[in-house]
Each structure stands twice: as structure tokens, then as C-alpha cells.
């Protein structure tokens, strides 16, 4: 099973707690990076915390959540070692792994229900990177032109 870091902002606190428990029950080692109460917080703070855990090797994968999923995914992608994909259904979650070697999945708590979020996570975690022709493209993601 995988080491998974999960973080959110206040808008996704309930979904984060449900997914953390569900992932743990699936046998994963889950690190809940916060927040831990409903006080208003800034999603970049938690996106960066998550990205540092994944990029630094403390976690194999990350789950980033905010109201829309957009803001926190932008924050995570500021860390070069992370490839975060915003998804809302299982096919895009699987393709993010297979084609883009995504190591973080982002979802919007106001956009997706918990059952769909679980389906996305299931697809994401069950899919391996396809390698081959995709490797060349993924390598370019870490080397933007000057």
C-alpha cells in the first residue's frame, strides 16, 4: 500500500476527514497535514505543505482538496517535484497517472461528492505510469524552456 499525504483548506475539511479515514481503511499509511478545525485558512499554505511531503519523499502520493480544487492544485504545482492533476471523474484520474505520472490528485469539495472522490482515488491509485512515449513528455514538464 502507499504512503499518502492529504491536505485541504477549510472548505474541504469534511471531505478530507472522510477520505483520510477511507484511505486508512483501505490499508494506506495516511498523513493528514491539516487543517484540523473549521477555522478559515489559506489553501496555498496547505498545498505547499502537501507538495513538500510528496516532493521530499515523505509520501508517495498526495490528495489536495479545496472548495474548487483549483487554488490548491496551483499551489502544489509550484513545487517542481510534484505533478498535480485536478480531476472530477475516474477517467481523468487514471489518465493523470498513466499519461502524466501525476503524484498528486486534486479535487474540489464543492464540485464532487465523496463517492465520486473515492472513485477518483481508486482509479488514481490503481493506475501505473505508462512510461514509453509518455516519459519524454513528462520529463519536459520538469524542464520548462527559458
Automatic annotation (TrEMBL):
Residues holding D-ribulose 5-phosphate: 9-10, 67-71, 100, 110, 133, 137
Organism: Sphingomonas hengshuiensis
GO biological process, one term: carbohydrate metabolic process
Gene behind this protein: rpiB
Catalytic site: 66 (proton acceptor), 99 (proton donor)
Gene Ontology MF term list: intramolecular oxidoreductase activity, interconverting aldoses and ketoses
Lineage start: Bacteria, Pseudomonadati, Pseudomonadota, Alphaproteobacteria, Sphingomonadales
Domain of life: Bacteria
Keyword Protein transport: no
Keywords per UniProt: Isomerase
InterPro entries linked to this entry: RpiB, RpiB_LacA_LacB, RpiB_LacA_LacB_sf
Family: Belongs to the LacAB/RpiB family.
UniProt protein name: Ribose 5-phosphate isomerase B
Pfam families linked: LacAB_rpiB (PF02502)
Signal peptide region: none
